[in-house]
Amino acid sequence: MRSEISESTARAVESTLMARHGFVVATKGGPFWSAVAATFDMLRALGIGVPAGRDFVERFATTILALVAMPAGLALTPLQRVLLLAHEATHVVQWYGDPAKMPVWYLQHREKRAAYEAGAIAQALAVQWALTGELPASASELPSALAYGYDLTPEDLALARGLLEQEATAI
After folding, report:
1. Does the predicted model carry a pTM greater than 0.85?
2. N or C: which end of the chain has fewer CB within 10 A?
3. What is the DSSP string of 102-151?
């Protein structure tokens, strides 16, 4: 990413996203998130493809219903922070769209999880375009963060990449 935005622009976009989509942002920390990290480590030990507990708490933003939990101390530029929040805001919108099914489908169906994540990445790319006029130059440069921590098969990753490429061409 070559372009950057000011801190005041970032704060304005963040406030607009929170107001428009009805969510709040909190910081991960304390006993609850320590317990979640321990649970993730236990699941990993059982062979379930989740991130390591420490990574989940320190590197992954997490959306639960209308709460976006951000890692404490995550060093992001204003633009990176806005793009991450736009991604998480998309998950809030997905949840509002079908609050009974979305969390279940996200957790139980890799293909749906891949589609939800591709949609969220695409929205972050649309925000990036709106703020900077820039997008990745080719499909090979599209974000590929889904390969770690989402328990997706190669087929699910291919689906997500295809959906993301399709969305990116529409921006």
Report:
1. yes
2. N
3. HHHHHHH-HHHHHHHHHHHHHHHHHHHHHHHS---SSGGGS--GGGSSS-
Alpha carbons 120 and 151: distance in angstroms, whole number = 17
Helix axes 110-132, 7-21, angle to 10 degrees: 130
96-107 pLDDT, tens digit per residue, is: 999 999 999 998
H/E segment holding residue 169: helix 154-170
In sequence order, the β-bridge partners of residue 62 are 69
* Stretch 120-134: mean pLDDT: 93
CA distance 63 to 87: 10
User: Residue 96 is encoded by which pair of tokens?
Assistant: 């509002």
